[in-house]
Amino acid sequence: MIQDAAIIGNGPAGLSAALYLLRAGFSVTVIGQDNGALEKAGYIENYFGLGTPKTGHQLVEDGKAQVLRLGGQLLRDQVVGITWDGDFLVDTAGSQLTARTILLTTGTSRKMAPIDQLDRLEGRGVSDCAVCDAFFFREKPVALLGDGEYALHELKELLPITGPVTVCTNGLSPSVEFPPEVTVCREPIRRLVGEERLEAVEFSDGSILPVEALFLALGTAKGSDLARKLGIRLEDNRIVVNEQMATPLPGVFAAGDCTGGIYQISIAVGEGARAALSAIRFLREKSGVSP
C-alpha cells in the first residue's frame, strides 16, 4: 500500500512532521533504527512545556506514542536507498515501501572513519555514493568501506559496473553475508595512498591493495547520502533546502540537523512542522485539492 509520506528518521524533526501530516489526514510511515542523538541525552530542561526534566529517551518515546495514537506507522529498520519512478521507492534492510513524498530527518553524522588522507582524497577516488560514481570506474579495481546492510546495498550498485570489489571492514566483523565472489578484508586501514588521485589502500599490517576508488558505506546511510543519491544539492555535507524546508526535487523535504544550523530540539521540532506543512501543500496540489 502506498503511503502519502515516508519520514526517514524518528528523532524530534521526523516525529514532529509526522504529527502534522497525520492530523491533516495523510498516511505516514516513520522509519528509523534508534532514537538518534537524543537516546544518550540526560535530563532535558531547555524545552518548552516540560514541567519536570525529562530524558532524551523518554521525550522521543513520548513522541512515538503520539504518532501511533494518531494512526501513524513506525518501522524499525535501516533505509539503504531511495529511488523515484513516479513515486518514491524506499529500500530498507528488510523491505521496500512506496511513498508520494519523502521527508529526510536523519540528523547528522558527527564522526568519520579515522583514516589518514581520507579527507584529502575525497572527490579524487574517494566517494560516498556508488550510484553516482561507479560509472567513472568501469571495470577498474575498487574497494568498499563498510560492514553492514548499507555496504551490501552499495556493493550491489558496484558489482555490475566496476572491476573487482574488495570489501574493507576496517577491523569490524561483517554483520551481513557478502557474495562469495567478493573479497572481504577485515584488516584495519592505516592510510590511503596517492598524490593527485587515490592509488591504493594501505592496511595496518603494511599490506597494500591497489585500487582506483574507495566507496564509503561504513555504518548506516545518512541523510546526506540519501539526498546525494537523489541528485539533491549539498553544501558542506548539509542538505540544501529553501525557507519551506523543500529541496529542489519535488516531493522531497528535509528538516533538523541534516540541514545544518543550530542543533537544538526546539529547532528540529519547528523545522519538522514546517517541512510537514510544505509536504501537505504538495500532496494536496498533486491530488487537485486546494491547499
Q: Alpha-carbon distance between the termini?
A: 24 Å
Low-confidence stretches: none
Q: How would you state the average pLDDT, rounded?
A: 89
How many extended strands?
19
Order of helices and strands: EHEEEHEEEEEHEHEEEEEEHEEEH
Residues in helices, as a percent range = 10-25%
Largest sheet data: 7 strands, mixed
Please tally the helical runs, counting DSSP H or I stretches of 4 or more residues: 6
Describe this structure in a few short sentences.
With 291 residues, the chain is an alpha/beta fold. It has helices spanning 12-23, 56-69, 130-133, 149-158, 223-229, 265-286, and strands spanning 3-8, 28-32, 43-44, 54-55, 73-76, 79-84, 88-92, 96-104, 126-127, 142-145, 165-168, 183-185, 189-193, 200-203, 208-210, 213-216, 234-235, 238-239, 252-254.
